[in-house]
Amino acid sequence: MAMLVDIVNFLGKSPPDPVRLPLLSSHKPVLMILATYLVFVKLVGPKLMENRKPFDLRGVIKVYNIMQILYNVAMFVFATHFMLGPGAFNFRCIKNLPPDHSYKTWERWLTYSYFFNKLLDLLETVFFVLRKKDRQISFLHVFHHMYMLYFSFMYLYYYGYGGHGFLMCFFNVIVHIMMYTYYYQSSLNKDVKGDLWWKKYITVVQLIQFGIILGHSIYTLQQPDCPSARFSAICAGGISIVFIILFSNFYYHAYIKSQKPVKKVD
């Protein structure tokens, strides 16, 4: 009951930061982007490609992967510097910097850079559609992309820039560096059949990421003098449990069940 009250109170409050960066003034722009994305990848895109040959996007995808690697590495470097330097994070209770803090602009744009990257991530599914890689467009893939973008918006709109969610995003950036490095390396080995040997470890790292986020969220909720991060910790911990289940199920079916020998029927 207390959790429900927290959610209602949280959703009913006004944005805490008066600075509204692009696409963060209301729900409408982000919801329109997500609706367009879903309609294209599930209905319009497959219909358009039904009687067409897959597009050869190898050059475009290489550039996209390199851009994502550099973007995420830059976020990782600046976020690490910010958390250990001017942000002076107390990892027991991570709070947003006050509006008049000399590094508040840093905090705003670093947090926004993560949100913007979730927009760029949607292009990955568009490439799948245009290349007719329908097997890649799973429920987990689409749900993950849509959730990450909308939850990032919700966090920035209702909670503000920085704070507890900033650390949670930090781990996701590490996963993205690894993931897009894999994609780029795969594009260089197009003549090699099958996946690269370390593909499954991306899912392992993702599961570790969600485990760390869940653990830190529980730790934050145990701090009696940290009410500012309570709702963020509840949301981050709750969705981590969902993703642990979904990614564990994916790992089992992709890398464990598929490796089991099929019993012959006499």
Structural account:
With 266 residues, the protein is mostly helical. It has helices spanning 2-12, 27-49, 58-84, 104-130, 139-159, 164-188, 199-221, 230-256. The model is unreliable at 262-266 (pLDDT under 50).
Keywords:
266 residues, 8 helices, disordered C terminus
Summed up:
The protein has eight helices and no strands. The protein is mainly α and 266 residues long.
Secondary-structure map:
Layout: H1 2-12, H2 27-49, H3 58-84, H4 104-130, H5 139-159, H6 164-188, H7 199-221, H8 230-256
In helices, the fraction of residues equals: 55-70%
Let me know the average pLDDT.
87
Poorly predicted regions: 262-266
Biggest beta sheet attributes: none
